[in-house]
Protein 1
Amino acid sequence: MASHRIGARLSGLSREQLVAFIDEQAPLWSAAAMRVAEEHAARLVEQPEWVLSEVLLSPDLAPHILAELPTKEHAAKGTCRAWRRGWKETLKKRERPRLLFAVTARVTVTVFD
């Protein structure tokens, strides 16, 4: 199998060629492969300071960010004080079961003369 040589083959590409290759191939990847690629990119790409200070640590935005996480992601609350506070603020909203259908009641009314 030639897949073990892909690193050597891609190492000679320019940044633009590599980005074009990834953009072309990414739609063909499975959901699991895309998650792994996203995790690697998140670790390797350094975020600017303003992303941390003005977005991720913002007391106004942290609850909205954390509200999207499932309740089993408890590690998020240990990240920092702002996230712990946001986790507590949004926990009750996330624990509520989300209804995917509407419940209707059928009522029979009897009128007497």
Note: The chain has a mean pLDDT of 74.
Protein 2
Amino acid sequence: RFVGLLVRKARESLSQVLPDLLAEVRLLRHQAKVQDADRVRLIFDRGGYKDSLFQELMADPEVSFVAMARATQLNVRQWEAIPESRFRPYQPEGDDNPNLKIACSTTRITDCQYPLPSVVIRDDTPDTKQRWRVLFFENAPGHRPRVETIDAEYRQRQHHETGFAEYVHALVGHSLPKAYQMFRVPNEQGQKRKTIATAEAAHSRQAVHLVAWIKFLTFNLIKDFGAALGKEYAELHVATPVRRYIMRPGRLYLHAGYLIVQLDPFRGDVALNSFIQRLNERRLPIPWLGGLVLRVEIAAKPQGLAAAPNILGQRILANSGPPGRL
């Protein structure tokens, strides 16, 4: 699920944005009345690698984190100096590489006064392009997980990537209002196609924030819908329940104080039966429609043109038949 949203300039890196993200998460946790609302655990990739940021995070007693390190020359020299006796064979779940070894150490970086605890994973495969995979971490007070557990926790970050990819592709996430105004001058043909400058408009961030917020809210609602259908549907990609169950032909009509959403029957519609029953039992009023009660149903058989697909084809392709025939 997406829990918060910040709109920033496109050229800012994660390391520049992360302090504001941390503040946003804490604000949301306070609003939700979460116990120990300021205590936050962060998981982030190399985009957040910045010495001063690690200094700030290590100095905050309420923050714990797992972050991917960069293989700088200074860092690699420290990892290469770790005694071989501290490494042991490592076989993470889902990884068939037999040449991995793991150790726990610390790494010193330039502008951070704190030594950073490090999960050091070394790949001894000959001629490998990435020999070192290292995670900086800081544990929450009272927690001392094994290094294998820390690595497994970081690997869950891939779910963040997958969720954002679903948002981009299923909900056209990059289709947002322009965040800037373009200043153009006429070319030789008098067409204003030559851009000479761009500037952020007064309300551009508000527009981007509103549309993006609606898209993220839609993402969460579709995920909630899948979870309501049952465990086997909870992990479906967002586009799947939309394609299977939401974007379906049907009709709206009013009857005795109800707004009835009637779907045409389709293969697999039985999966909706329990959900529809629970929904209708709640008798949900729609305030902006004068308190009409929502009711959803699936028709016993196709209605209207859907019941006669041959006629539907004639209506759509009205002029495609032979002369003299409808």
Note: The chain has three domains: 14-156, 159-246, 248-326.
Protein 3
Amino acid sequence: MPPDADLTARMDASLAAYWGSYGLAEGSLSRQLPGAHFVYTPIPLYLFNSVVLTGQDPAAIDATLGAAAACIAEKRVPVLWRLSPSAVSEAVRA
């Protein structure tokens, strides 16, 4: 059974909104990227630093991974990678 497009869009938005503001404190960085949302906090625990993938475009995902990886390497923090329902596609599985 194919996923309901409206429900998937609402789940994507909810996931990005919740984790996009989770643990934001002074010195945090919250950046909306094509098909993703990247959050860095000065708290060195993966729960507070995340990349939420919300798109299926392989080029956008690659760009997001590159941008996030650069910040992760610079800040030296662990990151939790979160996949929204729409991001789980053949492009992500590949």
Note: Residues 58-75 form the longest helix (18 residues).
